[in-house]
Fold this protein.
Amino acid sequence: MVATVLVTGCSKPVEKVEEIRPVRAQTLAAAQVDLLAEFPGDVRARVESKLGFRVGGKIVARKINLGDVVKRGQVLMQLDPQDLKLAQAQASAGLAAARSNHDMALTEQKRYQELREKNFVSQAVLDAKATAYQAAKASLDQALAAFQSQSNQAGYATLVSDVAGVVTGVDAEVGQVVASGATVARVAQSGEKEIVIAIPEDRVDSLRNVSDIRVRIWASPNEQIHGKLRELSPIADPATRTYTARIAIPDTPAIRLGMTAYVAFSAKSGTAMLKVPLTALWQEKGVTAVWVIENGVVRLAPVQVTGASGDGILLASGVTSGQTIVTAGVNSLRAGQKVTVLGNDPVAAPVAAK
């Protein structure tokens, strides 16, 4: 025991070796960058018609299916025409009666005109016959208009497509009773297509005047198509609080309705900006910061993020051009810790990024 105590007392205390963390770093340099924003969307026809019968009734025939290509004037659905035909027959009978009354009144007027010329009747009697003729003529016009209207109603029992296109929706089936004007089918007009996207409210003003718009289709991600902002809704969607934008694209047979697309807005920044990789950001208590390397040690510098550019993040304040920041290994650092940049000697001063 005495020997053990003597040996322990003579041993030197172990020196603590300060830990130096290896990190990757980047020297900041301000430059004009591409302000890029990309949003998902889907391909739609520029014009999509919601079709419905002009009269109510029971559907007895459906001659289309979802995805069918239809021509202008092609029959889509039919209603039971029995009641409409009966109403048309009633209007026809009323027209025949009005025409008979009109002819009789005209004959009476001519006969009494001759009698008046011979002074066999008074002028008052002739005026009464003239008035009766005018009433019969008005009744005939009324009956003719009613017959024409009812004939049109009978024709409305057949729903035809007013455009050439593709059936994108069938909202009614045989046997269903539909009201006048209710949508029973949707037809997307052939020709121009567009991409419909939703833009967040904080990006509307910055993207409104961007002219460089590129569209990629998910089925062909390596092909880009130039688009044009055709329409931007002035009112936000009440559910998503986003603004609907429609991007016009050339009519390409390879692009079909319903395909998934990505729309990228690209523009050069007006002023030089600092761009850092996403891995350089450190989040703590709701504050975004980066680790700045000074004299071989790191300190935390809060920054303000203004947006994204490609796979990088743009900084508005907090750091300046020429400073060196950590771009990999930020989660294992603490304030005042010494670091070494991978591939270099321990940092004694700001070094160039690797």
About this structure: The chain has four domains: 21-33+272-341, 39-46+191-268, 48-80+157-188, 82-155. Residues 99 and 140 are 6 Å apart (CA to CA). Helices lie at 2-10, 82-117, 123-155, 204-207.
